[in-house]
Design brief:
The complex is a heterodimer. Chain A is mainly alpha-helical. Chain A is built from 10 helices and 2 strands. Chain A has one domain. The two termini of chain B are about 40 Å apart. The chains are: A mainly alpha, B alpha/beta.
Amino acid sequence: MIRFDAISWRFLRVWRRNLITYRRIWKVSFITPLLEPLFFITAFGLGFSGMIGAVAYGGVQLTYTEYIAPALIASAVMNNAFFETTYASFVRMYYQKTFDGILATPISTEEVIIAEIVWAASKATAAATIMLLVLGSFGFVTLPQGLLILPLAFLGGLAFGAAGMFFTGIIPTIDMFNLPIFLFITPMFLFSGTFFPVSNLPAWAQPFALAFPLHHLVELFRTYCVGANETPTWISLLYLPLFLLLFGLLALAMMKRRLIR
Amino acid sequence: MDPIIEIHNLIKTFNGVSAVDGISFSVAKGAFFGLLGPNGAGKTTTIRMLYGFTPPSSGELRVFRREITSDWRWIKAKIGVCHQENTLDPDLTVRQNLLVYAGYFAVPKAVARRRAEELLDFFALSHRGDAKVMELSGGMARRVILARALINDPDLLILDEPTTGLDPQSRHQLWERLETLKASGLTVLLTTHYMEEAERLCDRLVIIDHGKILVEGSPQALKQRHAGDRIVEVAGPGAALLDFLAASQIPYDDLGERLLIYLTAEQEIEERIRSEFCMDRCTFRSGTLEDVFLRLTGRELRE
């Protein structure tokens, strides 16, 4: 079903279309990544740190704000990418008929789908960049290795964008995105070692956390922000591309089935 | 003749149901070709196969003498499609819609800019170039879609019900533009529900129903063959008239309250009906493509 010979760099033309739209509202789009980390750091830094003290993680002692700062960026990458290829792509596909227009040109269905996923990753990376600047200015990011977060954010954005695109390929109506968000995104946001180390979970629950892509993105971000981790870096670096490959293929297959009538 | 479209025994089935059931036709370079049929006849499916959106189930389909399945990118680069629905990008302005679309065709930026201005001018849209698409009236939006379909300077223009839902002013304005394009030698494939539109624009057309071609020919020839030159509509026909028609072997359709009599150019019979059977409620008129269409596809509702 998927035609690999129909994939070329022309997908960048569709990516550019999304960029042009984004530039019209970029000031609004930048507010969330700018303020979100400030809210979290203030709330947890002021409200929580007195109760928690230090977090023992990967053999080092971290303040609670140091611990969650990298996870905040990783969660933002997940949300930005996943929401872009679910709600935003669905609106373009179903309500605006943007894809129908594009598919009457020399662009293939595969290229449209890839463009949407790459765009989601780009938007997620833009958000990660702003958050990195904000959190970096508070000293939560070790430089220069902290900059490695940006290419990793792009990789994570591709992975979550592909997962979102897969759901867009199978979901009957836009309201039903609540389901993957409740069953997939929310548990991941809570149990991926974001707000507490996975090692604090009971032994039976830990493998589930390790299967979450967000866990691996958080681990990689923390590795380069504070220099410690609980999961070997190579496992995370292997897991995310494999997740992307699997959901990328699933997204292409399901979206093609949905679009081509 | 240089064929732009060659279709032979084309079939498309969806879950075992044939939407297009073995149609064959060809369109010569420079022709204005009509694809007519009731709702659900297979028009849009045929068009979608033509521009490589829907893969055919079987049959031959060549555009510009190339196979759509293998040379789809090359073919699509030379086609302009004007969709039935509004597929304009509501996130972009009118001008951006044209420029971004040119990008999908990899038209060089400078060329795209020049062409966009020419097209905005041609479709009387220059003053709305920076308008948001959502602000446009139905007629304007339709013109933008048409302008966008021409941004790649296509050799084949596909129009899927281009004037559906437009007011008479917008429709006539669009027809004038389409006639200008036709005069410039552009090959056009048109689907429409408006017989007046097909009659005015098309050199040749096919009427399809249930996925099959019923007839093919020029509007003039089809009218002659299937509607007759003259038509008499009789309201509340009497038995004497029916007997006369049967005895004279004149073709007619009995719609219950109304009778449609199909006559040749011969004056004699028309005069006889006028003097003997039409005391008051008769209408004498020329045959139209609409008569052809209704005779061939039937009068029952489709949806």
